[in-house]
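Hey, can you fold this one?
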Amino acid sequence: MAYQFKPDESVPQGIKRMAIEQMDKALDQLTGQANGSRGKAVHNTRKGFKKIRALLRLVRDEMGRAYPQENACFRDAGRLLSDVRDAQVRLETFDKLIKHFAVPSSSDTFAQVRKVITAQHRAASRRMLNQENTTAKVIPMIQTARERVKAWPLTHNDWSALHSGLKRAYKQGRKGFTHAFDEPTVESLHEWRKAVKDLWYHLRMLQPVWPDLLGEMVDQSENLANYLGDDHDLAVLHQWLQEQSEVEATVEALAALIQRRRTQLQQSARSLGERVYAERPRAFVERIETYWQAWQAGIKQPISVEL
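Sure. Predicted structure:
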């Protein structure tokens, strides 16, 4: 996988390589060089921007004054693409909800809801890609940012370049977990999810350090992020429903399904979160550092020997 450190490169080289790879993929998506639909291109591009921002947060202290500019660049570029992606997520969230509760495909109960969502998705796609010509605004933003990567002020080629960013992500996730279940609001759960996704991306970058063990941690943090992401998407769908007069007759029934599913997802997130954030931040980071140092020294994990 490209979004990982390699053993034959320095930390600054790895950070810059991963950033450039994500920018190049985004440019391929937005210029039509990658296969797939427009909606998929927007989705993949926004995922790439999130990876870049997570990467920047991992080396935030190293970036210094350059961090605000680069973070804002990819935040703003992602927002320009948000309308069409939000409409697509709404449709996907609705379909997943209906499938989860095995509502018959022949049922007309929610047919009008899906019709309205689909129409809005198509309208958002046309507006972004044709009328507003959004991709023409985003492409030069990426191209200019790519040219700045060489000048990123990354100097340290050791664990010190990564320590603070990883600790910050884990600490924020641990605090977010506590806050989310002390005050389980849409906002608190969403903030926790953002911290979880940072940890997920950071562990993905570090996975080669100990592929099997960190691979399991990557899977756990991804599952946790997905539980929280699905929960948030359902909360957004519920809010959207309350604003649509065309589907007023089905709001109550659909809202009941949404609440049932959100309860399930939050229970799953809580159970998994207790395991992902079982350690104190300092202990967690020191453990990962030990793996990093062993990897850097070329030490292989012990192999059992039959006597």
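Residues 303-307 have pLDDT under 50 and may be disordered. Let me know if you want another pass with a different chain boundary.
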